[in-house]
Amino acid sequence: FLQFVLGLLVTYAESALASRAEFGAQDTVPGFITNSDYSSLGATKYIIVQALTTAARQAIQATAPTSSTVLGVMQNGPKVGEAMTIARSGLSKVVAGGALTANWIITTNTSGRAARVTSGDFAIGTVLETSVSDGDVVTALLFPPFRWSGAA
Q1: Residue 122: per-residue pLDDT
Q2: Nearest alpha-carbon partner for 86 in 103, 97, 102, 70
Q3: pTM score, two decimals?
């Protein structure tokens, strides 16, 4: 019995480590589900999401850089009613909303894609790679969202 339990623990540890192998440790936001189907959208797996203000513990694609409900970047592609894995800090991929230059502070655009922050937006991280166009998937260092008051 002990060998069986240890085997389960090893399997769990291996899968937990594998899920973090690409990015390292991430701080995540637990308990949110989606009311949209993101399972077949490919690159939108790494879109920025916000809390849905009309329903508890639901998140949707972010629609406003000035919204205080921005949560982080969705890491999976859930179907309607399934749990979202939302990274709030640490390394993550993110879908660019246009050309971005490495080391810019980022926020969301109206399509849940990364854009350069401006004063009054909620900053969510620093993009670590340059993107050329809308839809590029790049690496970012995320931090908990806060209202940006500086220059871009």
Answers
A1: 96
A2: 70
A3: 0.81
